[in-house]
Design brief:
2 copies of one chain form a homodimer.
Chain A: E1 3-7, H1 17-31, H2 46-49, H3 52-68, E2 71-75, H4 82-91, E3 102-106, H5 112-122, E4 127-133, H6 139-156, E5 164-169, H7 174-182, E6 185-189, H8 202-210, H9 215-229, H10 238-251, E7 256-261, H11 267-281, E8 289-294, H12 303-308, E9 313-320, H13 347-364, E10 369-374, H14 379-399, H15 410-420
Parallel strand pairs in A: 2-3, 2-4, 4-5, 5-6, 7-8, 7-9, 9-10
Antiparallel strand pairs in A: 1-10
Helix pairs in contact in A: 3-8, 4-8, 4-11, 9-14, 10-14, 11-14
Chain lengths: 426, 426
């Protein structure tokens, strides 16, 4: 299992003994937990240290949900939402409910129409709710949970509690207290792992397992990544290379990164990536603005801007080497659509050509590009890729001298809301 | 029916006699069709000049599709896709197939797995195909159509032709020739309306009508907008005001615009907007980079970057005054979630508070904001809004001295593909 990285320019020319030293320092500071934000470095060795017991408990719970429910409603926002959403979407097959259990997300936005229709939709279906909030006090999921809890209690009476699972802090928070009082099953968000790094904890694993995917393989991929990318060799570590490339591009005025994929099912993985990098780096007036496009469709939308707009952006392609299912363009007798020149070409091969054609066209227009390639899309490779991004992100932020693990700016809007709505403590 | 616009700073201070003169010139040049790209100004008076006959023909065709089909597959990319997708998503109700006919899009990307599963999904369902391509030669939709045409011919034999509808150029292109040869029903993309301005032509109207929405109301809204925004008064025309604000922000170094909405169903309207502005303005190394977020969810993702990352972005909220369906937060006896301070508040009211709280927090962090408010989401108001954006976009591009109606950069990747795949003409 491998991740390869390509760059439109000569990577080696970016290297220097000073950079090597800086990377070594970052590595050592992370290892010795003396870097900024070290209290949140729990993700670093999580794949290799997650207990078999916890994995079994998650699997057992997921199987129980699958055998007793038609729908699992996952309530969460930000890091309590995007990780499992990204993995489930990446692994799901289009037009197929590939499973008897449907996973529906709520609480990531506040929307009366959505919630109302959701409540109507689940009527007559057996339901389990998994509410995920590290602090247990984030308003948006708490609002959704107030409605869902009421619904569950009205519908299931005293057995509602057995259909509600809480994933929250080990020691504190309103959600934890409520869970204890009501006797809900609880999973823990580790203290030392922040929301956007939490996909390999119960936060991500329970919904992913309930959706029918293999979390053992997902963790195995992450563990492999932990081994492969857990060193600071700037010549041979793609996570480090990605971080170095981003830093150099940033320093040269490329302040927007566009992550491009030809696989629509990686759309939420792109959203997860935007949170990971945007929230980790976007501090102290620094950071690269993360944006995403889906190709080919966005070649006919943002493509014009990328080709010829302001020259302050670079493009990072996420490519997949092998695809399970494909179609091949066949010869047509009358060639009325003038496509016979493509006969014999598979659609995946077309996309590979399109990648090269696009990268070169945009480069000619002044847009440098990086290409990250994974072998295939399955649990193992997705676990591997997500950990790769986490590692790259930590180095990226540290190279900018930013703490990758806090998010002070997210509090600002919350504080304003609490004041405006006169929350008792404020 | 009204659109209001707000700005975090004093709008009037941006005004000057020179600006007024410039706007008047743009207006006159558009009116007299002497501006850059005047060959593509057909959208300007389209809502007031679309023939009753064409509207009737589209409605009749849509009704025929609805009475003979379970699924309409719409094949298109870019402007042949995003307009109808945006309107259909905006008007659809979550968790409800609000209609007996399902509209599925294809050809906006090249994906073997998607197409294969789509072909499997439609087996046993009655199908109509609407293939939309102005040039008739864009590769991605042409590939999808080759597969679907084969499927339709295998399945329906000689009556396949009666289930295929082509929307293309009046006079030229492979798709037009094929349609004539095969006897497909044809609709025309007017010569003087480009893809991203084409939602009010058959390109957008047929799929929207087939999905069960009222295109007469949609056009009525657009017509109202044509009247309201068809003058150059910089004091009283929100379309002009939006263009002026964008220009001034751009000139002051705000080079990323983030369109924020609290309504998830406006997500594809945001995508349509990104194409409209990105493809119209992103030329000659100029233009504002268009990006979008959905709130609240992205407050826990890109929110940190917006609050505290590089200070080169501004935020444009798209707000909706009244919502059809809503829920109100009720008092809870035990208040275990500590949310009783929100009792009596509707979710839509929460979002309005969240809008104000967020806009102020981001402004404190150095992010200017614009707020565009529409009254409600229905056919009439969406038609009104889409035309508003088209008008604002034309002025925006002209203020940057850019032709809003061409897309020379989109050809670059195509040319590379054709060379690499040895297309006969290349």
């Amino acid at each position: 299992m491998d991740i390869t990285i390509g760059f439109s320019d000569d990577y080696t020319q970016l290297l220097s003994p000073e950079l090597e030293k800086r990377l070594e320092t970052i590595y050592n500071d992370m290892k010795s937990k003396t870097a900024f934000g070290s209290d949140y470095l729990g993700w670093l060795n999580w794949p290799s240290s997650i207990s078999q017991e916890l994995l079994e408990e998650i699997k057992t719970t997921a199987n129980h949900i699958r055998s007793t429910s038609d729908v699992l409603i996952v309530i969460g926002i930000g890091g309590s939402y995007l990780g499992s959403k990204a993995v489930i979407e990446a692994l799901s097959i289009p037009f197929e409910k590939n499973d008897s259990l449907e996973v529906i997300f709520a609480g990531h936005s506040v929307n009366g129409s959505y919630l109302k229709k959701l409540l109507k939709y689940i009527d007559g279906k057996e339901v389990t709710v998994n509410v995920i909030s590290k602090s247990g006090t984030t308003t948006e999921p708490a609002i959704a949970f107030r409605f869902l809890r009421q619904y569950m209690e009205n519908r299931y009476g005293s057995s509602a509690a057995s259909r509600i699972i809480v994933t929250t802090d080990q020691e504190k928070g309103a959600l934890r207290s409520l869970a204890i009082e009501q006797g809900y099953k609880r999973f823990v968000v580790p203290n030392d792992i922040g929301g956007r790094y939490s996909v390999f904890t119960a936060v991500g694993l329970l919904p992913i397992a309930a959706a029918g995917f293999n979390i053992i393989e997902l963790i195995a991929g992450a563990k492999k990544a932990e081994e492969q990318f857990g060193h600071f060799d700037m010549h041979n570590n793609p996570a480090i290379q990605y971080a170095v490339l981003r830093k150099r591009l940033h320093d040269n005025g490329y302040i927007i990164e566009i992550m491009a994929s030809f696989e629509e099912r990686l759309k939420y993985l792109q959203e997860w990536w935007k949170q990971l990098f945007g929230e980790s780096e976007g501090k102290n007036k620094k950071g690269i603005f993360p944006s995403s496009v889906q190709y080919s469709t966005d070649l006919h939308s943002l493509g014009q801007y990328i080709q010829d707009g302001q020259r302050n952006l670079f493009e990072t392609f996420l490519m997949v080497k092998n695809i399970d299912e494909d179609l091949t363009i066949l010869e047509s007798n009358n060639n009325g659509d003038e496509l016979n020149y493509l006969s014999g070409l598979s659609l995946h091969a077309f996309n590979k050509v399109c990648h090269e054609a696009t990268a070169n066209a945009h480069l000619d227009g002044g847009v440098p590009h990086i290409t990250i390639t994974i072998d295939q899309i399955d649990e193992m490779h997705i676990g591997h890729l997500l950990y790769f991004y986490m590692m790259a992100c930590a180095y990226s932020a540290y190279l900018l001298e930013i703490n990758p693990f806090d998010q002070p700016g997210v509090e600002a809007y919350k504080t304003n809301i609490f004041k405006m709505l006169k929350k008792p403590v404020y």
